[in-house]
Amino acid sequence: MELIINHTRKTFEVLPENLEALLAMELPGKRKGIAVALNNRIIPLSAWAETILNDKDSVLIITAAQGG
Q1: Could you tell me the pTM of the whole model?
Q2: Which pLDDT belongs to residue 64?
């Protein structure tokens, strides 16, 4: 099974249970400063745990960066 994460195909033997599980794998320990879109639809933090992933879904993960 695969997901497209930030425009890159990533293969999984078993897809993560939900969006929250995927983010824990991709960005361990980070929850603040993240915006996520699933199939071009923004998913609020409050819905990550209940957002189920399907084969071939497209996930865009944006993280805030500090700078001047």
Answers
A1: 0.88
A2: 85
